C-alpha cells in the first residue's frame, strides 16, 4: 500500500476525540497505535530511550485524544490508509451506510474461504 503523507490541516479534523463507542477506549487505541509505530520503526520495548522519544513525540496526555499534533497526523495516516484499502474494495462509492455495510459484508464473505 502506498503511504500518502497528509498535512496537519488535512488530518486534524479526523481524530480530535474518540467518538461513540470508542470514547472510553482512547487510551487503549493510543497504546495500540504506539505499539504499531514502535514495531514499524524497529524499536524494541526494552530500548527505553527510543521508546521515550517516540512517546514524547506522539503523546500529549492532557489533550482530548491523548495525542500531540504529530501523533494526530500519524494516527490519521493509519486511518486514512485503511480508508484507502476499503475504497479499493468498492466498484462504486457507497452512498449510504446501508449500502456500505451490505457491500462490505459481501466482500468479507467472498474473502473468507468457506
Describe the structure in your own words:
By secondary structure, the chain is mainly α. It has five helices and no strands. It has helices at 8-11, 26-40, 48-58, 69-89, 97-111. The longest helix has 21 residues, at 69-89. The protein is elongated. The mean pLDDT is 81.
Short description:
The protein has 114 residues and is an all-alpha fold.
What is the beta-strand fraction? under 5%
Q: Choose one word for the global shape.
A: elongated
Q: Give the termini separation.
A: 27 Å
Q: Please provide the count of β strands.
A: 0
Number of helices: 5
Unreliable stretches covering 5 or more consecutive residues: none
Cα radius of gyration in angstroms: 17 Å
What string, H for helix and E for strand, traces the elements in order? HHHHH
Give the overall pLDDT as a whole number: 81
Percent helix among the residues?
A: 55-70%
Helix and strand content put the structural class at mainly alpha
Largest sheet: none
Topology diagram in text:
Elements: H1 8-11, H2 26-40, H3 48-58, H4 69-89, H5 97-111
Labels describing this entry:
single chain, 114 residues, mainly alpha, 58% helix
Amino acid at each position: 500500500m502506498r503511504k500518502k503523507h497528509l498535512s496537519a490541516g488535512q488530518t486534524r479534523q479526523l481524530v480530535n476525540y474518540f467518538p461513540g463507542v470508542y470514547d472510553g477506549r482512547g487510551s487503549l487505541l493510543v497504546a495500540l497505535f504506539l505499539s504499531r509505530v514502535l514495531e514499524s520503526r524497529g524499536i524494541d520495548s526494552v530500548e527505553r530511550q527510543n521508546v521515550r522519544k517516540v512517546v514524547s513525540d506522539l503523546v500529549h496526555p492532557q489533550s482530548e485524544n491523548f495525542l500531540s499534533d504529530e501523533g494526530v497526523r500519524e494516527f490519521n495516516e493509519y486511518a486514512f490508509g485503511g480508508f484507502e484499502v476499503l475504497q479499493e474494495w468498492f466498484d462504486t462509492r457507497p452512498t449510504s451506510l446501508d449500502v456500505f455495510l451490505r457491500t462490505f459484508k459481501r466482500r468479507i464473505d467472498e474473502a473468507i474461504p468457506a
